[in-house]
């Protein structure tokens, strides 16, 4: 069962309006939660049926399977996005140290991450790749395209236009700057700590 989790912060963000956050969290993210539950229910029925059928050109099962990864990742990525907002943007902790070790400095990382986010159509994510034990930046053009299995999101930035268009119009760069101004580094450090404990 997927649940519509409450926002982890109740403060007004800098440069990202409450209207944008309310729509994003209350409608769009909720939509992925609801669809994930519907798809899961239908797949459970099909898995128990006597003659489950699939066809790669078109079948209900193919459609459900495509929808499953899109909707489920839509839930996970939005939760990771909201989880690391509401902070003061001041880099700190083991994550900041690991970022500096890999990219030279947090500032240099932010430049690279911003360029990646300008090049993405859906998401830019700093993830802990547990396969190789490294921090890596991934771009996803859709929720279910562009990530790799075994990579755990740490800093997740939604760059779909619904994340910023009401606030900055087509100016995505300013939105990404605002994203970093509101970054909750304590929450990101907690995700980093948990991700590193995962052994695969
Ligand atoms: Fe979104």
TrEMBL record:
Its EC number is 1.15.1.1. The lineage of its organism: Bacteria, Candidatus Yanofskyibacteriota. Gene3D superfamilies: Fe,Mn superoxide dismutase (SOD) domain, Iron/manganese superoxide dismutase, C-terminal domain. This is Superoxide dismutase. Keywords: Metal-binding, Oxidoreductase. It comes from Candidatus Yanofskybacteria bacterium CG10_big_fil_rev_8_21_14_0_10_36_16. Belongs to the iron/manganese superoxide dismutase family. SUPFAM superfamilies: Fe,Mn superoxide dismutase (SOD), C-terminal domain, Fe,Mn superoxide dismutase (SOD), N-terminal domain. GO terms for molecular function: metal ion binding; superoxide dismutase activity. It holds the Pfam family Sod_Fe_C. It catalyses: 2 superoxide + 2 H(+) = H2O2 + O2.
């Amino acid at each position: 069962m997927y649940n519509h989790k409450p926002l982890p912060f109740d403060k007004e963000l800098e440069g990202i309006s409450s209207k944008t956050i309310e729509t994003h969290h209350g409608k769009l993210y909720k939509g992925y939660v609801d669809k994930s539950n519907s798809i899961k229910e239908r797949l459970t029925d099909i898995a128990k049926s006597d003659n489950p059928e699939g066809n790669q050109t078109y079948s209900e099962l193919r459609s459900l399977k495509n929808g499953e990864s899109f909707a489920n990742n839509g839930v996970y990525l939005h939760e990771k996005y909201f989880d690391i907002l509401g902070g003061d943007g001041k880099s700190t902790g083991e994550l900041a140290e690991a970022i500096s070790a890999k990219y030279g400095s947090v500032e240099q990382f932010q430049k690279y991450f911003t360029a990646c986010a300008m090049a993405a159509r859906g998401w830019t994510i700093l993830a802990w790749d547990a396969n190789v034990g490294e921090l890596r930046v991934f771009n996803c053009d859709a929720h279910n395209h562009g990530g790799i299995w075994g990579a755990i999101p740490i800093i997740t930035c939604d760059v779909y236009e619904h994340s910023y268009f009401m606030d900055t119009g087509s100016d995505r760069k300013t939105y990404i700057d605002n994203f970093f101004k509101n970054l909750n580094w304590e929450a990101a450090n907690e995700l980093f700590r948990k991700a590193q404990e995962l052994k695969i």
